[in-house]
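Supplementary Methods, section 5.1.

A reviewer requested that the exact input to the structure prediction be made available. We therefore reproduce it here, unchanged from the version used in the analyses.
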Amino acid sequence: MKWLFLVHQVQTPNSRERVKVWRAIKKTGAVLHRNSVYVLPYNKERLEDFQWVCQQIRDSKGEASVFVSEARDKEENKLLRGLFQRARQEEYSSLLSLVERLLNRVRSAQKQRRMTQSLMKSFLKEESVLFENLKDIHRVDFFSNTTQAKVGRAFEQLKAHLASAEPLRTKPPAKYDREAFKKKTWATREHIHIDRLCSAWLILRFIDPQANFVFAPENRLPKEAIPFDVLGAEFSHHGEDCTFETLTKSFQIQDSAIRTIAEIIHDVDLKDHKFGRLEGPGLDAIIRALSVSSADDHESLQKGSIFLDALYKYYSKAFIKK
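The structure derived from this sequence is encoded token-by-token as follows.
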């Protein structure tokens, strides 16, 4: 079997130029054979691809040459084919993980009845991007990796779930004047965690600084109190929003730092990775630790507020620097 070998040396110190060369090589589907030597199975189209890469490298003051060579024996052919099989296996496996994660998010949204039109649109956009990735990998899968079929089946499941989904028609939450919610009693379920604790902090910090809180079993919450994060309450989950997000919209809290914190809370509470916030697991662990180490929910809120104040200050400064 004939093979193409690209031998090159990029001499420019410009990292952007180096990345451009790397992307150009990657786009051809070539794999690294040994230091600075990339390989492709031979055909005229791939030879032209390598020649264009050579020209790009030379334009950046580098050196590059393309060689056509026959494998010495079956063992060398097997070795070279194995390089491509492993490279495509890694790419398919990585894509499969992303498809399965999106499928789980779609299933979760359907099960929890929070598949809004905007969330559906977001899912469809993600599916489209992932499908384009699949086509890119398939284009350079020169030896038909077996994992391709598994990824294809995952896409079929994903497309079927999206096709059968019926987006909910949700109206935006009602707007309220913060001045009408001063010195009130607010109530939610006991054993507060991410959404309830952070929502209580938001109420104290931006809505009702002198708020009184009741944390109790849901069937024992005082009727005269304002319920939050309680099933059927005005200030609770609505559509694809967690309680924290509902409160920010209901009381028109326009703040970039709060928006960032809301995204983190959403990802932890709803587990749909909508915003992909990397801080989520850290905040989740901190609040769980506070819950375990505190005598009651009031102490959890007191300790958690110190951390959330610091987090808010940090993100506020980050936006000012931008």
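The first strand starts at residue 2 and ends at 9. These observations are discussed further in the main text.
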